[in-house]
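This section describes the prediction task in plain terms. A model, or a person checking by hand, is given the sequence of a single protein chain and must write out its three-dimensional structure as a string of tokens. No templates, partner chains or ligands are provided. The sample shown here is typical of the held-out split.
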Amino acid sequence: MKGDMRYTYPLWQMGFILLLIALSTIIGFTSDYKFSNGTDSFLLQLSLDGFGFWSLSAWLAVLVMYLLIFRWKMQQHNKRNPGRQMKFMTLKAQEYLEDDELFEEVTRRATQKVYSYFTVALPFLAAFYLIVPFGKFGMLNILLMLAIGQYFIYYRTIRRYMKEDAE
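The expected answer:
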């Protein structure tokens, strides 16, 4: 388990989502944005003051650094585990652990819990949005928090299994 990034991948995803929430919040609080819908184009215009420009630039730099560190860690993982390589960009979820039947069963249980989580959370959230007026960035941040919950549920399930397996 040590050195195998497949187990900590959900933590990396949660960290990235937290950075996106911060970025969304910075854009929401420091910018004046307009949606202009012309005949053949859709444009988002951001008007940033000095503080907004620098805070957005700094946060984008943090986001790029995070992605570079993540990519580096993933390359280290791939060198140490040539039989269990991960891809930086892929459509298949990296969380699927298909080493053997036991890992497939644990992955199935974890994804089943995540599915149950979304089955309850999404209708509740839709009703919540109808009742409580949130801005666009507030809605986006709450959806991103749901994604953090998804990765937390998955990580907790896998970790519980790994602790039981180690004992």
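For orientation: The mean pLDDT is 82.
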